[in-house]
Design goal:
This protein has about 325 residues and is an alpha+beta fold. It folds into two domains: about 210 residues, Alpha-Beta Complex (Creatine Amidinohydrolase); about 60 residues, Winged helix-like DNA-binding domain superfamily/Winged helix DNA-binding domain (Arc Repressor Mutant, subunit A, Orthogonal Bundle). It has six helices and 16 strands. The strands form four sheets. Strands 1, 7, 8, 9, 15 and 16 form a six-stranded antiparallel β-sheet that branches. Strands 3-13-11-12 form a four-stranded antiparallel β-sheet. Strand 15 and strand 16 form a beta hairpin. The longest helix is centred in the N-terminal third of the chain and has 21 residues. The protein starts with a strand and ends with a strand. The structure holds manganese (II) ion (MN) (2 copies).
Length: about 325
């Protein structure tokens, strides 16, 4: 997933949860690479399914199933954002829509014991926007070459911006990558896509999701009204039994990471569900992650890296 800069996604776990260490003998670094491998496989295999006439929900569920089958957990719902939509769309369970002449961003993430691999790519079903997609791939490559201990995040942002502008497009200035931490998709540090973004000094051992977005429009996203992705913010006492049921389920299953409305379908549905969800949002229990849209067509490429002594290594491969 990405981060909207004006609305930094800081998740503060409110529930102490004893994580069952599935991989007791593995180091944090090994877990980052294992989650990265699975995340990358889900991305590659999921992308192969993106074809005209195929349902969006089938691709999302396929990629998500692969993550579980490989022994990891979901770090967030499979984002499938088309055309002007830059990020944060995931199909609802009854979404009947199919791919057409679209520019499709697939963004998937897996975690093992809280260690995340986050990656994304763009499939151009129009065949007309190869350069837009390539601009984000080149920007990512150049960014990865730049990342090293002591380098400022804004220097990486400048490299991304320059690569995308040279290709004739606009970087999306208010979307950014993010530093990952255990059980945190966004640690509070943003990895910018422009030179004037959030500044921090890169350190050895940091896990960073780098995700250039390029646009044929103005390069600035706004929120749609539509929300399909949520995360747990702060549990409060609830009278509504349906809302309590949903909250209990989320606390049990997705205490740290974003989840899809689609994932709650087995727990609650219909009018009761809609009313309960509304209450959970209004009371600030759930944070919303609205669909993000630019005025132009948007492409995205993302990988997660671990910063080494003198550079970085991609974990999502
Ligand atoms: Mn991300
Ligand atoms: Mn992502």
């Amino acid at each position: 997933m990405t981060n909207k800069v004006s609305n930094i996604f800081k998740y503060c776990p409110t529930k102490d949860r004893v994580m069952v260490d599935k991989e007791k003998n593995k180091t944090d670094e090994e877990l980052y690479f294992e989650a990265g491998r699975i995340s990358f496989k889900a991305l590659q295999e999921g992308a192969k399914k993106i074809k005209k006439g195929v349902k969006l929900v089938d691709v999302a569920e396929y990629a998500e199933k692969l993550i579980k089958d490989e022994g990891a957990d979901w770090a967030f719902p499979a984002n499938i954002s088309q055309n002007e939509r830059a990020a944060h769309y995931t199909p609802s369970f009854d979404d009947e829509s199919v791919f057409g002449d679209d520019i499709v961003k697939l963004d998937v993430g897996a975690h093992i014991d809280g260690f995340v691999g986050d990656n994304a790519l763009t499939v151009d079903l129009t065949g007309k926007y190869k350069n837009l997609v390539k601009a984000t791939e080149d920007a990512l490559k150049n960014a990865i070459k730049t990342v090293a201990p002591g380098v400022k995040s804004t220097e990486v942002g400048a490299v991304i911006q320059e690569t995308i502008e040279k290709a004739g497009f606009k970087p999306v200035e208010n979307l950014s990558g993010h530093v990952l931490r255990k059980n945190l998709l966004h640690s509070g540090l943003s990895m910018p896509n422009v030179s004037w973004g959030n500044e921090f000094v890169i350190e050895e051992g940091m896990a960073i999701a780098i995700e250039p977005f390029a646009s044929t429009g103005r390069g600035r996203v706004t929120d749609e009204r539509l929300v399909e992705i949520f995360s747990l913010r702060k549990p409060v006492p609830l009278r509504n039994t349906e809302a309590r049921k949903i909250l209990n389920y989320v606390q049990e299953n997705y205490p740290y990471f974003p989840f899809a409305e689609r994932w709650l379908n087995s727990v609650s549905s219909g009018f009761k569900f809609k009313a309960a969800l509304k209450e959970l949002i209004q009371k600030g229990v759930f944070e919303t992650h609205p669909v993000l849209r630019d005025e132009g067509l948007v492409a995205q490429t993302e990988r997660t890296v671990l910063v080494t002594k003198d550079g970085c290594e991609v974990t999502t491969k």
